[in-house]
Design brief:
The protein has 297 residues and is α+β, with helices and mostly antiparallel strands. The chain is built from 13 helices and ten strands. Bound molecules: 1,1-dimethyl-prolinium.
């Protein structure tokens, strides 16, 4: 029996965060759990509803050496604050990380090897729609189905948006990639103010993609309402027809659990981009290369 949620889409609330870090290789090498012990075997996470959070919790189950570790959930901003502080003091930290994200531009970071492949391989970002959208809004459905771009396009908007904002950065990208955008809308009739609800996530990667698709739909005559919500809410709202479409979900791994729960009532139009990656991330200065090297409690 699916639990129902208030049908109104709500934005993510950010919560406070505790610091987390883990031992350097010295601790791992000579079995001295000193640093990990001080830091209470904790991984710095992000929002509770993120798919990467669900995967990190699965990692605590799958990796014996992590069975007594904890994942501190918080917010992406909180995680970035802890990362900044660890880096400036060259302290160890283990965090749930993903690309594309500008943290890899700002700092020398690396993914820990994931021998049990809990975080999956390189993934795809999918376009999804509520059931019935193709019949109700054929023009929007065709544009959404044609939407396709590269990680570099998304990353470029994410970086530009740090100087301006996502609307300006998306508009600049569209202006510089008109041929690509025209390939999405070629032969599609314009509409006159038809309302469409686009759902997305509050992470910069999705602020980039949703800003682009919103502007392209608006240029084609649609009245777009864009709402950023937690992945679990988005999948449920799509399955209940409370939102028309999204270009946000990362699959098959990151939000695979939500697709499993709601996918049979959602129209999955397939990938619009490929090459995203999630995992546990540490600063390059930490002499540790695999999840299996994290000290058990
Ligand atoms: N992320 C970024 C999200 C999706 C996009 C990896 C933090 C997640 O659900 O984990």
């Amino acid at each position: 029996m699916k639990k129902t949620i208030p049908l109104k889409l709500v934005a993510l609330a950010s919560v406070s965060l505790l610091v987390a870090a883990c031992g350097t290789d010295d601790a791992a090498d000579n079995g001295d759990a000193g640093i990990s012990e001080q830091l209470e075997y904790t991984i710095t996470g992000i929002e509770p509803g993120a798919g990467i959070t669900e995967r990190a919790e699965a990692a605590l189950e799958e990796y014996e050496n992590l069975s007594d570790w904890e994942l501190e959930t918080s917010s992406t901003a909180g995680m970035m604050g802890q990362l900044e502080s660890a880096i400036s003091n060259e302290e160890p930290i283990v965090l749930t990380g993903w690309t594309p994200h500008y943290k890899f531009e700002l700092y020398d970071l690396k993914f820990l090897e994931d021998p049990q492949n809990v975080f999956g391989d390189a993934e795809f970002v999918h376009t999804m729609a509520r059931e019935g959208l193709e019949a109700d809004m054929p023009e929007a459905y065709t544009i959404l189905d044609n939407f396709s771009w590269e990680v570099d396009d998304m990353q470029g908007i994410m970086l530009d948006a740090q100087e301006t904002d996502f609307d300006v950065a998306a508009a600049d990208w569209i202006e510089g990639n008109q041929e690509t955008v025209d390939s999405w809308t070629e032969g599609v009739d314009e509409v006159d103010g038809q309302a469409i609800e686009i759902g997305s996530f509050p992470w910069d990667s999705e602020r980039a993609s949703s800003a682009v698709i919103t502007q392209v739909l608006q240029e084609h005559g649609f009245e777009v309402t864009l709402t950023n919500v937690d992945p679990s809410i988005l999948f449920q709202a799509l399955s209940q027809g409370e939102v028309d479409a999204t270009v946000a979900p990362w699959l098959p791994t990151t939000q695979g659990a939500y697709l499993e729960e709601y996918g049979d009532q959602i129209d999955d139009l397939g990938p619009n981009m490929e090459g995203t990656v999630i995992g546990l991330v540490v600063p390059e200065y930490m002499d540790i290369d695999s999840i299996e090297e994290l000290e058990p409690k």
